[in-house]
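Inputs:
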Amino acid sequence: MKVSFGQYVPGNSIFHRADPRTKILWTVTMMVLLLLVDSFVGYAVAAVFVVAAIIISRINIKLILKSLRTITFLIIFTMILNLLFYNGQTLLFKFWIFDVYLEGVLFSLKMIIRIILLISATSLLTFTTTSVMLTDGLEKLMKPLTYIGFPAHDISMMMSIALRFIPTFSEETDRIIKAQSARGADFDSPKFIEKVKSFIPILIPLFIGAFRRAEELATAMEAKCYRGGNSRTRFRVLKFSSADLFILIFTLLFLAFVIFEKSGWLAI
Amino acid sequence: MSIKLENINCTYMPKTPFEKAALYDINIEIEKGEFVGIIGHTGSGKSTLLQHFNGLIMPDKKSTGKVYIDGELLTKKNVRDLRKKVGYVFQYPEYQLFEETVYKDIAFGLKKLKLSEQEEYEAIHNAAEIVGISDDLLERSVYDLSGGQKRRVAIAGVIVMNPDYLILDEPAAGLDPAGKDEILTFAKRLRDERGTAVVLVSHSMEDIAQISDRVIVMNEGRIVMDGKPSYVFAQKKELNDIGLSVPEITSLFCRLNEQYPWISKEVYTVQDAVNVMKKLLSGGAVK
């Protein structure tokens, strides 16, 4: 098992204690606001907010950096594209058929900062929220949509089942790979066709296992008289607490700053 | 001819909040022809230990841990060849079956060995015979078989490679008593006929006491006992302390021994019990 992007890390920080709805709200707001900000001063302030949030959440900074490492390719790709194709006025140098402008360099820098801040801010949600809490929060947030016939409960149940089985299947895959290699399977053949073929002994048992589990789970749910969302009570009742208030104020502060900046009072 | 582990330590997910040490300082040697039983709690490191035997888990490069198979140091380069000597049957091996027919599935490992058709055919029939899969089942789909049959087909897929060492991780879990006995019987037969070393993990003290010549007890990532069944199962209190037990029949004779000290408590299998009883009856040792 590997720690992947945004795996839940147990803890007792304000972020951990906050209602998942507040955290979803924080994530969405941060996403929108970070896309609106487009000056270096703006990014500097945004970075202060994001770092403050990370410190408050008590998530090890190394874990955040690790999750950033998975998107290194994306960052480099964006950077190169912007460098080569951005059209500005101040020509820096020519490279083959491309012109590199000063504006292009600045713009690609901004894009990189934007991506890094986006990922760090949003990964806090999954780092501090268990998948069960997350889907509970989503269900509550989607509740108003049920009035127009949107199956909020079913969707969130499907999501939580899907999330619940990710580690199970990753363990199962690991096990099947080990079992087949113990029987002499070879997964790093240099030939492409051979390589694709070598995955058949993994995929077939994995699919069969998935169907078997799905069937077992369906039977178990039916045996417990599961009947969907109507009039179900909850074990965990979501409540608005001081932690939520804190995050809300924190988000509002950042919102205020962005409005302030966008209104042009901070001309750069 | 042996598998030898030297200074093996193992930590899962190091340097993360989920870090978990699984093995501490393991030094152990499994000789060819031995029948070794491994007991220990869930999470005591049994499976992690087993996976070192054939390089599914390699010792950390920075550590001093080393694995030797038949005297050869296990490295990334030779692991694929050395692994052929060590057959590994996972828990619930029936979930790894994938081919259309039983025959093809047993043949899976053989494909890499480039045998002639005749050799392949013989090897497969041989393996099927050992695990008790009759010829008429060979052309059936693996998904038509019963649970016990599937498990035996999966084990045949490992035995067919003719390994020198066979590792069985709880091979009888979830089987009925008859199915369990069959598996233990052919494991023993393999050892007796081919001299295969068998390493068997089980939660049944009775099975372990009855079948193995050597018992290894694991607790919290360490080997706490290693010796003959009579040596290990004589330490009833120590085993109880780590949440394990002795065979039922040993418990019974320990209690008899408390009441009637002349009855031996060194009874580990039903056969031992029969012998002790016979002696008592013939010798007339009753007061």
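The radius of gyration of chain B is 21 Å. Flag for discussion at group meeting.
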